[in-house]
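Good morning C.,

I know you're traveling, so I'll keep this short. The sequence:
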Amino acid sequence: MDNLNDIYNNYDNLGVTRNYENYIEHIYIFYNKMNMSIDEIANIYKKNKRIIQMWVEELKLDSFNSDEKMNLNDNSNIQLELNKKVEIKKIEENKLPKRVDDFVSYLKNIKEQSPNTIKNYTYDLTLLFKYLVGRNQNVENYDNVDIRYVDDNFIRNIALSDLYDFLNYVEVDRNNSAYAKARKVATLKSFFKFLNVKMKVIDENPTIELETPKIKKRLPVYLTLDQSKKVLESMNKGKKYYSRDYCIFVLFLNCGMRLSELCNIKLKDIKEDTITIIGKGDKERTVYLNEECIKAINNYLKDRKELNNCNEYLFLSKRKTQITARAVEDLVKKHIENAGFKDKKYTPHKLRHSAATMYLKEGVDIRFIQEILGHENISTTQIYTHVDDVELRKIVNDSPLSK
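The tokens, ready to paste straight into the viewer:
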């Protein structure tokens, strides 16, 4: 999307702050790539179409080449991502049943779950009730079903068979994978247990016998030590954002951070050879830095200082704001492909896998790797105890009976 920089410049030239700043890329894709009308975009953002027309004019979107339109049925990653964002936005704008609101408050105030976890639970439960209510009304489009009036009597009548029907619906009609279905099962179990045990709203929990979809264990995709070194060595030192990108890779490969953890690092979180980060479930942990990490951070901070930027976040975007997860995903993909590794889909999470695998191969105790990665349960860490094909073949070839 080469036009994006120009579009952001058009926004900056306005000299004022608009409430659509965080949606500029989406608006560009909707209008220029997907050829959506002003009315369609207005419906997505629940805005008057004159407001959307003003956005288009201010960003000067009509001046950009739109020959390469996206097909509305395109299954590309960006299309799927946008569909999900729009879908979630629509769902979040719907008023929820009282018991879902109660559950959300419980997750937020008592369980202190992360905003992302709460969003996912809310999304799953909204889908459930839209399906159950819409099915009874014999509607074709469940997205438009009003679920505000779902009461306790309705919930008490939900049976195990209804939940399996729902899981079949999300698999067949919404193309949910086994992983997505498993998450929904976890949501359902948590919600109905809350209603049964905490709220005493239902006498029987319909999820007691609800089975979680069987998920095939997938071995982690990772970079080897040699591949990791090649990626770092192949990065162009003459590029403007070299020190930032290099530092990001070094932290991923040495510290095994999650993407969200890296994006949210603030300058105040760095203390000599440690970084305090907020991990999954809003849990705080300390990440220890080796010499390579400290050197990479200092080099980046030196270049960052020259930009005269006082933003509180460590990693900044081209627009001198907190770097987004999407931007990190893009730069990780770019540098890995530039190093010649295009056969697998490498992501920031794959770099986390790489860090764990390299530590394991160096003989680090799995319990220490668990602490490094911030895993609550060691069973999550044990997936890294795999051996690759090369090592397995070597072991077999070195068998005494083969000599």
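Safe travels,
E.
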